[in-house]
Amino acid sequence: MMYLTPQKRALGAVFERASRPLTPPEICEEARKELPTLGLATVYRAIKQFLAEGQIRAVEVPGAAPHYESAARHHHHFFVCCECKRLFDLIGCVRGVQSLAPQGFRVRQHEIVLYGECAACANQEGAL
Amino acid sequence: MMYLTPQKRALGAVFERASRPLTPPEICEEARKELPTLGLATVYRAIKQFLAEGQIRAVEVPGAAPHYESAARHHHHFFVCCECKRLFDLIGCVRGVQSLAPQGFRVRQHEIVLYGECAACANQEGAL
DNA sequence: CTCAATTTGAGATTTGACTCTCACTTTCTA
DNA sequence: TAGAAAGTGAGAGTCAAATCTCAAATTGAG
């Protein structure tokens, strides 16, 4: 039996209004605006539960700490700006990714990450 | 000045004959077949040197420890087995990945990672 | 309401990956 | 070949992320 607590409600709300994937500390900080005493352990506990329920999804990008986002957002990939380190959502996906797997392999998921410079950083280039 | 030691020779050979990216402990274990006293610290030291020389490349895959492979192997992507945690090479690439980026973004690199079960683990499934 | 089951916060602990230290050994230039 | 520079192994140390502990507080079925 799982109790519905203000902590979980607040954490759930954070995921719902987030416009990008967040790290556990970011999630904690954000939820503290509503519940200032919220502990990081509780954040990790909630993440684990939410993941198990399929309410949120882990976004793991090489070279960055794990981020989490609402599972309601649909399948998408990321662009990592090598200059400013921000993550951007990519719109759309590529067909045929699964066919890269060898015979007999079962593909459950895939991630595509592009690395480079975002529009803002690419523009400043001359200035560097 | 860098000395050429049996340890580095053995570690270099491990990278040359590896058919998939390896983790430092895997590299250590493999090299110990030749030099049984080889320490993990030496593996890390060699990895750092080989990386600096461009002899090997880091393969950072979300949800897995860093792996390393010979830089001589060309552009390819990976399959991560969620059961046994091993990495496998994918043959080929997908066209059109770069076009996912928004206007004005400069794409330098991309990574594609498939997750699932490798042929061996997919087969054992009934037994679990 | 009552109260057993569950959850919480805070800090301690664990974990995992990696680096450092140090005494000893090896490499290779001069 | 002498010896300075570089490398080695083993274990201790580091660091950050994640988990555990436990007393106190909360939840919600009955």
What report would you give on this structure?
- 2 copies of one chain form a homodimer.
- Chain A is an alpha+beta fold and 128 residues long.
- Chain A has 2 domains: 6-70, Winged helix-like DNA-binding domain superfamily/Winged helix DNA-binding domain (Arc Repressor Mutant, subunit A); 77-127, Dna Ligase, domain 1 (2-Layer Sandwich), CATH 3.30.1490.
- Chain A has helices at residues 6-17, 24-32, 40-53, 119-123, and strands at residues 56-59, 67-70, 77-81, 87-90, 106-117.
- In chain A, strands 4-3-5 form a 3-stranded mixed beta sheet. A two-stranded antiparallel ribbon of chain A has the order 1-2.
- In chain A, strand 3 and strand 4 (87-90) form a beta hairpin.
- The radius of gyration of chain A is 17 Å and the shape is flat.
- The relative contact order of chain A is 0.13.
- Strand 5 of chain A pairs antiparallel with strand 5 of chain B.
- The structure holds a DNA duplex (30 and 30 nucleotides).
In the CATH hierarchy, the architecture of the largest domain in chain A is Orthogonal Bundle
Q: Looking at the structure, what is the overall shape of chain A? A: flat
Amount of beta strand of chain A: 15-25%
Number of strands of chain A: 5
